[in-house]
Structures are given as structure tokens and as C-alpha cells.
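Private note to self, pasted from the team thread so I don't lose it. C-alpha cells:
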């Protein structure tokens, strides 16, 4: 089904508590989630038929909804079981899953306190987020025009649809210039993240990464920090200014879709795909596929 529009695919989608044909998973054009971005979602991957950190993603889905002031009317256990059953029904082994919850169409206006909360879960085959040939040699990033907002202006701890508007705009602009993605600063001018992934830099055997104080502290981000520390590599979470990128030796992105992806260029700054980055790529792959990481130290 590769290349088919997502509304024209076959299979089933879990929708408000039951499995329905893929083509029937529709919402009304006057749904509040469409007009006012009262919508939260997750991005998850399954490897070998097992959903990686499924429970952690579901907890975050509920927490994201809470940040937007609504309660998802299905328990974490119900959602986790639905995801597992969906994989079986779709006959998927290596897959991407997208749970999404939103306010419905009972009220149309900024206030929609009594709207029904809907939940859907879809799953499909999805290979590497970036082109394989680009990923192995390091992807190229532009510097984004838009910035991650002040925490006092947006619920940054929520994986909310509305927070991705500037990400789409920034990624489109970057792709229009021949880049794979864009690096975003925050409202203070500090390095923040890419449009859908967290960023890490390496210098003198240490890993440096921005503090997630105005953007999502990704599940993959935390996982990779743990893998690095298991290797005895120091990970420093701190303020990183754009001009510091000139002095870093390596750079990589992390995310459920991106996994661990090396970066060769961010605007005028260049990086090598070095041993620490390669080791973390291997360790992450070993973890998600339940393989034993290489004992070799970096």
C-alpha cells in the first residue's frame, strides 16, 4: 500500500472502542479538533510484532489530553490491548501506530466543554523516516524561521496537534531548499529541536543536548540518554546557543519515527558521523529488536 493516500488504504482502524473498516474511519467536518486543534496523538513503532514502550506512550497520550483539559474515556489497559489486537488484525510485524484523540462536533466555538472525546488508533507499515541513503551519511538540516514558543504561551508538555503547525511549515520550507529537515530554536534563541525529533551533539566524547523546558521530552530521547549512560558516556542537558554548533564534532536526532539519525549539516555547521553516533544507532536497534548490544566500548 506504499504511496496510497491514507484515506484509500485497506484494513481496519480501532475507532471509539471497536474495529471498523479503514475507509469508514471518518469524522465530521465541524469537529472541534479540526478547527481548534483540540487534538492529541502518539507516534509508536512495532518491531517484530512488539510495540516499543507501548505503556509509556499510552501514559503520555492520557497526560497530553489532560494538558488540553479533556479526559480520554478509555483506560490505558484498554488502549494497550487495542493496539496489540490491531497489529494482529492488520497482520503487521514492523509497523507504525498512530493513536489520536480529539474533541467532537457537539459544540462549534472556542469553548467546547461538553463535546464528546473520540479516540482512534491506526497502524501501517512505515520504513525509515528519512531516506536510507541520506540517513547513513547524515541528513542535512536547514535553520527554521519559526521558533518553539514560550511555555507560558503553549502546553508544550502535550503532544498536541496544534504545536506541530510551525513544524510542518518549517519542514516544508527546508525541503523546498533541498534539506531533509529543519532545526528550530526556541523563543529565547537557544537550540531546541528538529521539526519532529530531539537533537544531540557530541564533543570530546561527551554528549550535549538541550534542556526540554519548552518542547517535548521525547520517549526516544530518554531511551537514548539511558543507552549512552549505560556505555559510560556522559550526557549533559544544558542551554545550547546556535553558535556553539560550530564546535561540535557529531550530531544526531532521536524520535520514534527518526529512531537515531545522524546529522551531517545544520545550516553553515558541519558534522561527522562518528563512532559514538554509530554505536548508539546500533544499541538502539538492538534494544527495540531485543538483540544483545555489542560489548565493544566506544
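Design output:
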Amino acid at each position: 500500500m506504499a504511496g496510497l493516500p491514507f484515506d484509500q488504504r485497506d484494513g481496519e482502524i480501532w475507532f471509539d472502542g471497536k474495529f471498523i473498516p479503514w475507509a469508514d474511519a471518518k469524522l465530521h467536518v465541524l469537529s472541534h479538533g479540526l478547527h481548534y486543534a483540540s487534538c492529541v496523538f502518539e507516534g509508536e513503532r512495532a518491531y517484530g510484532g512488539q510495540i516499543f514502550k507501548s505503556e509509556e506512550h499510552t501514559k503520555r497520550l492520557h497526560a497530553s489530553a489532560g494538558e488540553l483539559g479533556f479526559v480520554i474515556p478509555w483506560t490505558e489497559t484498554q488502549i494497550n490491548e487495542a493496539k496489540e489486537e490491531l497489529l494482529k488484525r492488520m497482520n503487521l510485524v514492523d509497523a507504525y501506530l498512530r493513536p489520536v484523540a480529539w474533541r467532537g462536533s457537539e459544540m462549534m466555538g472556542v469553548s467546547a466543554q461538553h463535546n464528546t472525546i473520540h479516540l482512534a488508533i491506526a497502524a501501517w507499515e512505515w520504513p525509515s523516516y528519512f531516506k536510507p541513503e541520506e540517513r547513513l551519511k547524515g541528513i542535512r538540516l536547514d535553520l527554521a524561521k519559526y521558533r518553539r514558543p514560550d511555555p507560558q504561551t503553549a502546553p508544550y508538555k502535550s503532544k498536541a496537534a496544534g504545536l506541530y503547525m510551525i513544524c510542518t511549515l518549517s519542514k516544508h520550507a527546508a525541503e523546498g531548499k533541498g534539506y531533509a529537515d529543519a532545526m528550530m530554536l526556541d523563543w529565547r534563541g537557544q537550540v531546541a529541536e528538529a521539526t519532529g525529533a530531539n537533537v544531540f551533539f557530541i564533543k570530546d566524547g561527551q554528549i550535549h543536548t538541550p534542556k526540554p523546558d519548552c518542547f517535548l521530552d521525547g520517549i526516544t530521547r530518554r531511551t537514548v540518554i539511558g543507552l549512552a549512560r549505560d556505555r559510560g558516556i556522559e550526557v549533559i542537558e544544558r542551554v545550547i546557543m546556535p553558535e556553539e554548533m560550530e564546535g561540535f564534532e557529531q550530531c544526531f536526532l532521536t524520535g520514534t519515527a527518526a529512531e537515531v539519525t545522524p546529522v551531517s549539516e545544520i545550516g553553515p555547521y558541519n558534522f561527522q558521523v562518528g563512532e559514538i553516533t554509530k554505536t548508539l544507532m546500533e544499541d538502539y536497534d538492538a534494544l527495540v529488536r531485543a538483540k544483545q548490544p555489542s560489548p565493544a566500548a566506544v
